[in-house]
């Protein structure tokens, strides 16, 4: 997972990006990079490899445009909008390379009952499990019961970063895959 990133890997990831997704602050989407790869490819490869060597991303590449996309036909409240971060294409390439590498180890880190965020696992299985458990919940069989509904809507804002980083280290996730986020 901590091996260097190859020219082919960078090119393949760039060419896998949707061509017309939001281009970010400098206005160049993946379509531009694909069509001018023979001109800009070397610079893209150098920038991505430099990031993986140093874990430092230039501020110009680490900026986003925040767009509010309506969830409903006539939005009138902030909750009626979905915020979308329009990241620069170079940032997307780096993020996708990291995501591919983390995807390999996720099934070993995320326990089997956790069904979301792991390919091949279906969250619907847990819905069926909850329905089965709740079917006779109302019956008094003498044992105390408790159920809890957790709203994860703002969970990211409550992340204990020290705990998260210690957990990643315990699972031997190379620090190069997460260290860069600490400087921003």
Describe this structure in words.
The structure is a single chain. By secondary structure, the chain is mainly alpha-helical. It has one domain. 42% of the residues lie in helices and 8% in strands. The chain has 6 helices and 2 strands. The chain has helices at residues 7-16, 30-35, 37-54, 89-109, 123-135, 161-170; strands spanning 64-70, 81-87. A two-stranded antiparallel ribbon has the order 1-2. Helix 1 crosses helix 4 (89-109). The relative contact order is 0.13. Residues 74-178 form the Reverse transcriptase domain. It holds the Pfam family RVT_1. This is Reverse transcriptase domain-containing protein. It comes from Dipteronia sinensis.
Keywords:
DNA/RNA_pol_sf, 184 residues, 8% strand, 6 helices, 2 strands, extended, 42% helix, mainly alpha
Give me a quick take on this structure:
With 184 residues, the protein is mainly alpha-helical. Helices cover 42% and strands 8% of the residues. It has one domain.
Secondary-structure blueprint of this entry?
Elements: H1 7-16, H2 30-35, H3 37-54, E1 64-70, E2 81-87, H4 89-109, H5 123-135, H6 161-170
Antiparallel strand pairs: 1-2
């Amino acid at each position: 997972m901590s091996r260097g990133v190859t020219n082919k890997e960078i090119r393949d990831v760039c060419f896998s990006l949707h061509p017309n997704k939001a281009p970010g602050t400098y206005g160049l989407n993946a379509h531009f990079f694909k069509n001018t790869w023979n001109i800009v490819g070397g610079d893209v490869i150098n920038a991505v490899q430099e990031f993986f060597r140093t874990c430092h991303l230039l501020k110009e590449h680490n900026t986003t445009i925040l767009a509010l996309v309506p969830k409903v036909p006539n939005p009138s409240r902030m909750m009626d909008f979905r915020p979308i971060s329009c990241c620069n294409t170079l940032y997307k390439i780096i993020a996708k390379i990291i995501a591919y590498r983390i995807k390999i180890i996720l099934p070993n880190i995320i326990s089997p009952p956790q069904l979301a965020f792991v390919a091949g696992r279906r969250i619907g299985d847990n819905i069926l499990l909850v329905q089965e458990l709740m079917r006779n919940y109302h019956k008094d069989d003498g044992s105390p019961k408790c159920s809890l509904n957790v709203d994860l809507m703002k969970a990211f804002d409550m992340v204990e970063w020290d705990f998260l980083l210690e957990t990643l280290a315990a699972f031997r996730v190379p620090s190069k895959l997460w260290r860069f986020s600490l400087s921003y």
